Every structure is written in C-alpha cells, then in structure tokens.
Amino acid sequence: MLLVRSLLIAVSVCVLSPLRGFAKDSSATQPPAITMRLVERSCIGCHEGPDGEGGLDLTALSTDLSDPNVAMAWVRIHDRVKDGEMPPPDDDELADPLRRNFTRQTAKWISDFQESQFEQFGRVQGRRLTNSELERTLQDLLAIDIPLSRLMTAEPRNDGFIGIADSQSMSHYQMESHIKAVDAALDTAFDRIVGPTSPMVRELPPEKIARKNPKRRCRDPEMRKGLAVTWASKMIFYGRMTSTTSPEDGWYRITFKASGLKPPEGRDVWCTIRSGACVSGDPLMNWIGSFAATKDPAVHVYDAWIPAGHMIEIRPGDAMLKQAKFQGGQVGVGEGEPQNVPGVALHSLKMERIYPKGDPVETRRRLLGDLNVSIDRKKHKIELKSKTPDAALARQLRSFMHSAFRRPVPQNVVNAYSKMLGQAIESGEEPIMALKSTYRAVLCSPRFIYRVEPFEDSSSGSSLLDQYAIANRLAYFLTGTMPDEVLLQLAADGQLSDPNVLHQQVDRLLDDAGRPKFVKDFAAEWLDLMDIDFTEPDPGLYRNYDPVVQNAMLDETHLFLDEMIDKDLPIQNLVRSDFTYLNSRLARHYGIEDFDGNETKRHTLDKSSVRGGLLAHGAIMKVTANGTTTSPVLRGVWVSERILGTEIPPPPENVPAVEPDIRGATTIREQLLKHVDDSQCAACHVKIDPPGYALENFDPAGQWRERYFNRNAKGSNRRPKIDPSFQMPSGEKFEDFNQFRDLVSADTDALARNVVEKLLTYGTGATIKFADRENVETIVKQTKSDRHGMKSLIKAVVTSPTFLSK
C-alpha cells in the first residue's frame, strides 16, 4: 500500500512546480535512485494526476531544487519519512534500514545542492536595511533623533521576521520613501546646526498646568487646594495640559511631582502619561509611560518624542477605578470631587528639550568635521571659510562616505562623488549646500542602503565574510544600527575572525545599556510583540484590561528575557521558570496577592503558580488571540513555530477554518474534535492541538479562567468548563498547563534548537535551510554543557560558520 497519506497531504500545501527541463546532466540536481524508487513504488498510486489524494500530483513534482517551493516539498517528504509519520499506521510498514537509507541519501542530495549554491552565490543575497535599521543608522550617522520609519513603506514579514533578504524588494515606492527619509534626516541635521544654541526649558507650577480660566468647562486639570487635579474618567483627552504644547518636533524630558487623591483601599492610583494633539480631528495618542500616584508626592521622569503642536496628558488610567461622569463632554470646576472618585494631583512639571543622539555641536561635527565655517543663525546659512575649499570639502566628503558606507571606500568611488560635488559648485550652488546634496546622493547609494557583504576570498570558493561585513552583521544583529568605532577598528585590524574577540564584543554590545534594545528588537519579531496593538480585548468581556496592564505585560516579557541573557539562564526557563517581572497593577490583573510595592521588579513565584515562563505571559496571550475569543489552533501553531521549532504548513485550501462559537453554546474543543476527523487535518493537528489546548485556561487578556464565557448561561457554574488535557505527539499525556510545561521544558535540545534557528534567521537575514541544520545541531551540542544558556547560545551563533559566511 502506499507510502503516504499524512506526508503527502502536508506536502500538498506547497505550490509544486511541474518538471521544467532543468539540466539532466547536472548530478547536483538529480535525486538518488532510492528516493525516486521509493516514491514511485509507494506514493504514485494514490498521488497521480490532478485528482491525486490531497490535491497532490507526484508525477508533476519537479526535482529542480533551485525552485524554493520544490525544495520545501522534498524537505517535507524527507522529514515525514524520518520522523516515522510515513507510512501511516494503516499502510505498509517501512523497514528501518530502508527508512534510514532513504533519509540519509535524500538529505545528502538536498544538502549538497544547497551548499553548492551557498558557495557560488552565498546564503544571503541583497539584504537591505530595514526601516528600523535605516532610521537608527541615519540617526547615528548624523547625530539626530527624529523618527523616520513613519515616512517609509510598510515591510513584509517572512517566518515572523522583517529583514529577510528573499522577501525584500526595492520598488519605486520603496525608493521614494527612502528619499523622503534621507531628506528629512539631512534637513533636520542642517537645521539643527543653524538653530538656537540653548534648548527650551519650561517650568510649570500648578496654576500654569491647570486651565487658564478657572470657571471654564474644559478638559484641562482643575485647581484644587493649590494643585492641578484630574479625576478618574473615561472622557477622551481629559487630563491634557495645553501649557505643555510642544513648540517644535523633538525629544523632551518631562519631570513632574504627583500624588494620588482618594485612592481605593490598599491601593494607589495608577496613571498614564501620553501625548497627542488632543483634538477630535487627531485622536490618536502616543504612549509615554505609567506610574502609581501615591498619597505622598513623588517625582517621576520620562523622555518622549513629542511632535510640534502636541501636548501631554496625565490622568488616572486604571480601568478598575471608579469613574466619574461628566455631562456635555467637558468638565467644570468641582464636578469630580463630589463623586468620590480617585484622582491625580500635579504639584509641578518641567519640560526640557533634550538630544538623545547628540547635541547640535555633535551634529555639526558629524556633518562638517573640521571645516572652517561661519554660521548666520538669522539667515539660516552656513558659509565655508577656507583658502583651499576644494581640498577641504573632498576630505570631509571622504570621511562622511567612510562612515555612511561602514567600510573603507575605494578611490574610484570617492572620485565619482567628488566629481559630483565639484559639478554642483560649478553650477552655482554654495559649497555647504553642494556638500549636502552630495551627502544625499551618498545616502541613496546601494552601498548605504544594502549590507555590503563580500567574500573574504571568493577565488578559493570560500564564502567567509570579510572583516567589515562581520562588523556590520554583528552590529545590526545586536544593536540594530551601524557598527561603532570599536568594531570598525577591530575589522581594520583583522581580529573579527577570532572567536574570543567575538565573544568579548557580544559582552560589550549586550551590556546593561545595549541588552534591553536587543531584547525589544528581537522579541518584537520572534514573539510577535510588534502586534500587541493589533487587537483590543473586548471591554465588555475583559473589563480589567487597560493600557497600564498592556505595557506592564510588555515590560514583563522584556525584563524576563533580559535576565535570561544577562545571567545566561538555562533555556528551559523559557517555558518553566520560578520568577517573572511584575508591578502592582499587573500582579492584581494576574491575581497574584503576595506582591509588595508598585515598581516593576523581579518576583519569585510560588511552586504551584502557572505564571513562570513565556507561555504564561500576558503579552503572549494577547498577541495569540483576537480580543474576543481564543483558538487552540492559532495558539497551537504559534507555540509550535515560535517556541518548539516545529513548522506547521498552511491548511489545504479545501478545508474550511473553524470559527469559534462566540455565543458559547459549544466549546472550541467540541468543534475541533469533529474538524480533525478529516484525514487531511489530523497529521498537523497532532502537533498543533497539544499546546493549543494546554493554553486554553488563559483568556485573550492574559487572565486565568476555569470556564468559557457563555452569553446564555446564568451563573458561572453553568458555563462550559475548560478541558486543557491532551497528549503530546509522542503519546505522553498531560492533564493541565503545568504538566504540559513540564513535558516541553524537559526537551531542552529542542528549545535550544528553536532559539538558535530564530537567532540565525534574525541575525543573517535568511531563513534556516536544510543545509544549515548541521551547523544548528553543532551549536546545540556546543552549549549543552552550559545548559543552553541564552547568552551562550548567542555567542555560539555569532561564531558559527552560518553567521560568519555570506
């Protein structure tokens, strides 16, 4: 009988290309005889022609591995046979020697072909800076701090990651947005040089914070006993302060003293700080932070980017607080206090312009170097003062190009841009403006836009990156921006092939200041945390959820991963740990009662707690739900692919998706059990369902629940009870979430393998190919003695052949 219902159904989801006349005499493209013999003997019978089982026609399956879809299909065939999923139990048994021989020779065929492609073309081709990398590179290059990614075209994601070379393009839309970003960056930089020499500082006492007219109904704070007060309310823009309106785009340090009024018993008043235009025509607000207003006044400091014309809003933001009600959309003096609701009182506020990436003096140094110039601030003009202007400008241009291109620049390239500069001056442009326009051309060059990653010795067939390419890859991997002077000097000295030097640089770049940035960048893509705002939990169902909780959830995950890297904690902590990070608001949301204080801090969990590990983090629960209901399929696929490293192919097109019953009349488990009776679904659901069911006790807002919501049931006991029990693909059974975590955390090699693959994908810009598997396994083995510590995994990744090769 046949080899393979489950395998071939899974393969059928690929777009398989028909035979297309590839080179028959090329041994690299020819499959081993045993591969074709096994397929022809055991598979063709059921998978022949357009009506083949699962929609798969094996007679049309090409063996041209240069087609990514074809290669993916053969990899899946190999994996299904190797894992014993083929043939299925009701088909003929496949003898172990034959299975081993088939998988060994098929693996060699695929690996040999891919490795030959790597040697010829490199594993990664044409990798462009992502929007975030471009923004940070321009900011660091020019010492400016203006957000630029908002000017750029949206980017696609591949395997969860943005910077995958195969998914990047450079259409005229991308080029147009790139030019917009470059122009905005250069304009900001040159404007800063000729701008005011002293930054704005605005100090506001309570009477300046509160409404100008004490009798006027509005949404600004009111004066109460000498303080500017805002009460808890759902009214939009309430708590805005018109006196904080920003005079210009920029970063500002906001320092204020605040206290809580009428707090609930045993609690303080959690408040939000946001910025926005605070008008109906521009209703979006930007998050700055949150704090707990205590009875005793306390000083709080936040840094935020605030566009011109936007103002600051500070208000109680805890959804669990009693809310005041105001008539007519405005607030009159004294209307909130009689309602006996909590509030926040501001004692003072200071707003100061800051320059996180460097002050105007540093911006001038980056753009003009040691050029002798005079600055007329009234006329907004920079004039060059030099007896040898051509030589001075050429010297500065070369220095700028070296920084922008992130490596030494060949003389012929320097000459081409120097000629452009000279032509601009000859045409009548003032020297500094001509220099600016030449900078624009430099920043639109492929040498700036793309990662230049030449082979160190391409003549020998080696694909090892040269020293500057290693410096760039390491910098963008760990910092998301261009390499600093230390890395460039190490590249110049030829030291970045030394594993010890690379380990030292990992420690340096992931110090206390650099680690949080890497964690946020990596987790945003790996764990989908960039999608945290994509949905909003239904306020009618999840009334305790609010922006304070959401941002505390993000802090929980970021700080948790930060500690795993800092202390090189074993990989099993990802799913089974005895600690997390909380503030009092998130602890209350989770129902954790033994948490003291308001500040976010490390909290040791009780042994019976379900909160240890990423799978219990509220941020993860939110991004894997739709805001109203949960789906074991969606969460199961997410856990399989992001944590367990098990690829789940998309479902066959002829199988309809299961839509949860939002009335609650039937549970999602009851619906899925009928759904997976279809043989086309069973092969994948055996992997999807275990984590999906195990996480069902977490609702879309990240809270623990024992029963489903049911609109028709009166009384909680009549609502359907959640059953998280199931069995692993290996047959091991679990009864609840804790038992599931125990089973998953025991396979530390699998957890480490997944993290290595995600780090390599993120760091190199290419998804893991079949030929990469050997290097991945080597890293897993190398770090086993360190219990696969998180920093150990990162260090092993950056010294691996996969990371150091084109």
From TrEMBL:
Record-annotated DUF1595 domain positions? 395-453
Alphabetical keyword list:
Signal
Specify the DUF1592 domain's residue ranges.
465-592
InterPro entries associated with the record? Cyt_c_Planctomycete-type, DUF1585, DUF1587, DUF1588, DUF1592, DUF1595
Q: Which parts of the sequence belong to the Cytochrome C Planctomycete-type domain?
A: 43-90
Q: Which residues form the signal peptide?
A: 1-23
Q: What name does UniProt use for this protein? A: Planctomycete cytochrome C
Where is the organism placed in the taxonomic lineage, from the top?
Answer: Bacteria, Pseudomonadati, Planctomycetota, Planctomycetia, Pirellulales
